[in-house]
Design goal:
By secondary structure, this protein is α+β, with helices and mostly antiparallel strands. It has a single domain, classed as endopeptidase domain like (from Nostoc punctiforme) (endopeptidase fold (from Nostoc punctiforme)). It is built from 5 helices and 8 strands. A 6-stranded antiparallel sheet has the order 3-8-4-5-6-7. Strands 1-2 form a two-stranded antiparallel ribbon. The N and C termini lie far apart (46 Å).
Length: 165
């Protein structure tokens, strides 16, 4: 069992590094988002700040690296570290900035998912590029990067919000 965990951990880190290098290439203008122009430096910094929090614990109501993060706390904290104000709760983050077509997501955008039935049943993350996002998933988990191509996330994506221009 421990060997399996180590292999999965190493594989996950290799995938994350690959996605991170794709993000860096997109910031250099080598991989441009379709029709969106270059990603602003501030948006790249937002993604870098979120990336640096990977591995931090999930904590309901958490909004700091020391205590842990819930999904909206991660976004609130990351944007704040970069001098940007966004609301603290998911329902408000789902209205922050301006709506962007899903196929025009750019690194640094907030991605919003419908994960529950109630109006508050939302989950948010930060788009990292390469059809991946960084988020704090749920209790017992840690901040991580995931592909939005996974059927679960692909079906649940309801909005992309641009805060950084």
């Amino acid at each position: 069992m421990p060997g399996t965990y180590v292999r999965h951990y190493i594989f996950a880190r290799i995938c994350v590094l690959g996605l991170f290098f794709l993000l860096l290439l997109s910031g250099c203008g080598l991989l441009k988002p379709a029709g969106n122009g270059p990603t602003p430096v501030k948006a790249q910094k937002v993604v870098h700040t979120a990336y640096a929090q990977m591995g931090k614990k999930y904590r309901l109501g958490g909004a700091s690296p020391q205590k842990g993060f819930d999904c909206s706390g991660l976004i609130w904290w990351v944007y704040r570290q970069n001098g940007l104000k966004v609301p603290r709760i998911t329902t408000e983050q789902a209205k922050a900035g301006h709506a962007v077509p899903k196929n025009r997501a750019r690194p640094g955008d907030i991605v919003v998912f419908r994960t529950g039935q109630s109006p508050r049943g939302l989950h948010t993350g930060i788009y990292a590029g390469g059809n991946a996002f960084i988020h704090s998933p749920r209790r017992g988990e840690r901040v991580r990067m995931e592909s939005m191509n996974i059927p679960y996330w692909r079906k649940k994506l309801i909005a992309v919000r641009r805060v950084v221009y």
